[in-house]
Amino acid sequence: MAKKTYQKLKKMNEELKKRIEDLKKKLDPDKLQKEIRQIQAESSKPNFWQDHQTASKKMKRLADLEDELAQLESLETLWQEGKEKELEKSLKKFELKTFLSGKYDSFDAILSIHSGQGGVEAMDWAQMLERMYIRFFEKKGWHHELIDETPGEEAGIKSATLTVSGPYVYGFLKYEAGTHRLVRQSPFNADQLRQTSFALVEVLPQLDEKDEIEIKDDDLEWQFFRSSTQGGQNVQKVSTAVRLIYKPTGLTVTCERERTQEQNRKIALQLLKAKLWVLAEARAKEKEQRLKGGRTKAAWGTQIRSYVLHPYKMVKDLRTGYETDDAEAVLDGELDGFVEAEIKNVLD
After folding, report:
1. Is the same domain home to 284 and 305?
2. Whole-prediction pTM value?
3. Which tens digits make up the pLDDT trace of 256-270?
4. Which of 75, 115, 176, 211 has its CA 20 to 30 A from that of 300?
């Protein structure tokens, strides 16, 4: 019996070591060190911070690289100390991160929520989703900022847009895009009838000014109005809120959370670039599907997840089949299982 247990532990130990070695081959610590030294050398130059946006991006990259190296060293230490359970947990988390190798997976993200069919019920559902994602961001330690929000007439929100910053945020969040469906007893009528509501989630990468989406000034129409979100005299005197219209398509974005018009203009342009990138990606995928003879799904019309609170409790992802009956935990930000299942599903 003791011999079998020893052999089992030895096999587990060997498998864990192999997974660490596979990670090291994929990440290449020497290559990471070389890039770290390169950025450190650049950051020591007197003119490094003249282009603040580029410098900030490089310093973020430096922090991510240093974190990856530290995590690799931590995995080695855990293996040497024989802490298999802790090592297994850390390996799983780190392996998932290495799956995210898309061009923009390491970028920060812009997440928007829009209420759909269902009137006040849908607006309330949109606000429930907003809270769910904010709780998820907090649990992950990601910085988030609400940059635009339109409240509902009676309850909830018509829409909300947040920026989210952290390691590989866009890679982790991008599969949350799609239609989210809620089934529950209505809290808005005396009969508490069973009600189905829908909300749409958009997830976009935060592209900076030097990324590949080019926009001509002549294609832009800027409108300025008084913010409904600021207090004090600013509401009465200064038109800081921004509405940006892309004339070739009529695509419109708004931003009114910041205190200056210049800040809101910058965010609105960033939102527009991200939306145009998503449209370009969708067209490319549509063309690829046509060439393959396949059917093309609507870019934003796909239902991805169902949240049932009545007559039973169940949250199920319709793409992966991953589900849980702890709906309250999910709505309180416990989304890791769904996010991990979808990332692995796409890569399998």
Report:
1. no
2. 0.72
3. 776 788 888 888 888
4. 211
